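Milestone 3.1: sequence recovery, worked example.
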């Protein structure tokens, strides 16, 4: 177990590779292999914070190749009980505009073959995931975003696709017709693995583009270059919002995330 400890973890997404100034970088070993990179440990608002870019600092891991289990286990090893997971996302609704932020309340998994559980047996474990995101952290995130004068959507469903390719127009239209708001490649299994470890998790979806099948709009096919450009231009807003969320998080957990394994076996 590492000597360093942290209360709160933050995963950085595409275009978001650093958070903390004067941080100490550490290597954390896990039973599931190496995390995406070294973890940076620092202090924000009197709280110990661990930061890890989920794709690695050089963006060397595409979405389908991220070792999500190692990333989450590393946070657990440091003592993290709350995780903030910002992501770059596409919009499936005209009213959810580039530059907006969505505090997701639901997720739909459309990935394949990802290692998405810590419980491969011999004890069968079924963890409830009806409400994927922490009910204590979500209101704090919404308030923190709005305090920064960010156009914020209080809820939204993220459909998670396998990647690394973007959707076809037909797929995008299908997702829109299902009534989902946001599309992404990394929220699953990250948010679910946090639940299995009884860690609170909240997502902030930064909308970087309209997905290609959006009806009623003349939408150009999205490119990775465009996503990175939009995220980079919003980095400081995202960081400021994360700092406000961290400052607002109380020491006591009032949600049931910490008892997710009760009755699961």
């Amino acid at each position: 177990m590492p000597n360093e400890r942290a209360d709160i973890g933050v995963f950085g997404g595409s275009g978001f590779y650093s958070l903390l100034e004067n941080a100490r970088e550490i290597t954390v070993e896990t039973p599931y292999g190496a995390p995406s990179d070294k973890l940076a440990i620092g202090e924000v608002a009197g709280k110990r914070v661990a930061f890890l870019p989920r794709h690695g600092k050089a963006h060397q891991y595409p979405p389908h190749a991220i070792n999500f289990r190692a990333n989450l286990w590393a946070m657990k090893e440091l003592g993290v009980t709350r995780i903030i997971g910002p992501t770059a996302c596409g919009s499936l609704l005209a009213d959810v505009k580039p530059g907006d932020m969505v505090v997701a309340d639901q997720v739909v998994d459309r990935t394949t073959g990802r290692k998405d559980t810590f419980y491969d047996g011999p004890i069968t474990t079924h963890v409830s995931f009806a409400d994927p995101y922490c009910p204590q952290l979500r209101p704090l995130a919404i308030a923190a975003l709005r305090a920064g004068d960010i156009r914020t959507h209080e809820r939204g469903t993220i459909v998670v696709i396998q990647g690394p390719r973007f959707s076809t127009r037909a797929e995008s239209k299908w997702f829109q017709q299902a009534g989902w708001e946001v599309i992404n490649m990394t929220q699953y299994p990250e948010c679910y693995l946090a639940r299995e470890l009884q860690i609170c998790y909240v997502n902030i979806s930064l909308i970087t583009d309209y997905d290609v099948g959006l009806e009623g709009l003349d939408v150009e096919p999205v490119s990775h270059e465009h996503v990175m450009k939009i995220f980079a231009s919003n980095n400081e807003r995202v960081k400021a919002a994360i700092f406000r969320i961290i400052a607002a998080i109380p020491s006591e957990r009032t949600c049931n995330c910490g008892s997710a394994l009760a009755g699961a076996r």
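The chain has a mean pLDDT of 91. The chain has one domain: 8-259.
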